[in-house]
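Predict fold of ATPase, E1-E2 type; 498 aa.
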Amino acid sequence: MAGIAMPVPDATVIARRDEIVTALKAIVPGEGVIADEIEMRPYETDGLTAYRQMPLIVVLPETVDQVARILRYCYDNAIKVVPRGAGTSLSGGALPLADGVLMSMMKFNRVLDIDFANRAAVVQPGVTNLGITRAVEHEGFYYAPDPSSQIACSIGGNIAENSGGVHCLKYGLTTNNVLGLEMVLMTGEVIRLGGKHLDSEGYDLLALMTGSEGLLGVVTEVTVRILQKPETARAVLIGFPSSEDGGRCVADIIGAGIIPGGMEMMDKPAIHAAEDFVNAGYPRDAEALLIVELDGPEAEVDYLLARVEEIARANNAGYLRTSTTEDERLAFWAGRKAAFPAVGRISPDYLCMDGTIPRRELPRVLARMRDLSERHGLRVANVFHAGDGNLHPLILYDANRPGELEAAEAFGADILRLCVEVGGVLTGEHGVGIEKRDLMTEMFSDEDLRQQQRVKCAFDEKQLLNPGKVFPVLHRCAELGRMHVHKGQLPFPDIPRF
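Predicted 3D structure, encoded as tokens:
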């Protein structure tokens, strides 16, 4: 795997593979354990397909008891575990380990309860993001976070990465829409956090779990907030002669106190790719396209649309088109939501980056990104959640050309360094995984990282859950002051350092 170092596989665990397979089959009978190499092949990668690694074994539990017994067995036998949802992670968060059990949660795929009175739904982690909305839309409700992969991504994976989507500006990320969790710790203990009640006592461990990237526990049940659909929703397409004009318009809309339901931006390469793919009616001559959606009471929406159009014209907008029907509004969004697969038609490969910046820095960052494109000799198509500054540059390359993957990785690293330089962060909704792991020191001091690792030690003292992700250096918990060192002997000496 180019440029990515993972923990050295434990040869003693690999040598015990047949024994481990037998033990797991006793816990999950039938077809719940996959040990054949060909059958495991679909699990060797996730959405970050540049990196691949075959797992030791794949297991597909169906009950909470099975999850607990699997984790307890692995805990007792010092076997690593990588939790996996639908495998749509774009940061390598579900990349398997050669000496680890990959635990797929996709058989946990039922909607357990819908409580319209409390505006909540209880689902299993393998239910897709869009599946939640489908389950409640007959009563005029929906689940607000809507990542572009919502047709496929699982709610458990959304929690692991704190996913967002085009409507997260107004309605929040996953963390703002999850009310409760049932989860299993590495020791096999089952705990519950939060619920349908308004608040809970003690530390907010629910928020800690959201975005924890599978390092702290395995989610087996989720309670989410559902919302009533707004009375009116209309969207406007705004074309600009430059990305800088579009960036300034974004800042001015937010500065005017307007919080759209969604506000997305695309540059010319992305506009053309999406239009060729979907025929959404995008202006091909625009250098940048802004999609702004306003929702709420009809009178309010009409007033805010007029304000947005006024601000857009003040920022040199050359194209304005407002949706007049629901089908037209959905068509505007169809192009944006299909942007990632659309770009796949114009390049053999691409890396989808994920960084977040202050909105006021959009013009500066977009200009710097063009310079980086020339320096690295690779094209970039920009698609991003403009309202909250969450960038998704798509770096186009051809993996069959020697050196292009490495150049794309270097380009992506420079983009993320730029995000931090202007006061932003390394990620918005894709997580750190392996993709950004070695850039964590660009944003955090050594003590910052050690403190974060102490939290992991509190949940996973043997460092068996998804090791090799997020932290650039894996410390033993004893080194972080978490465990007692007796007569110079560290507990769990078999934990790898890398």
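The chain has a mean pLDDT of 93.
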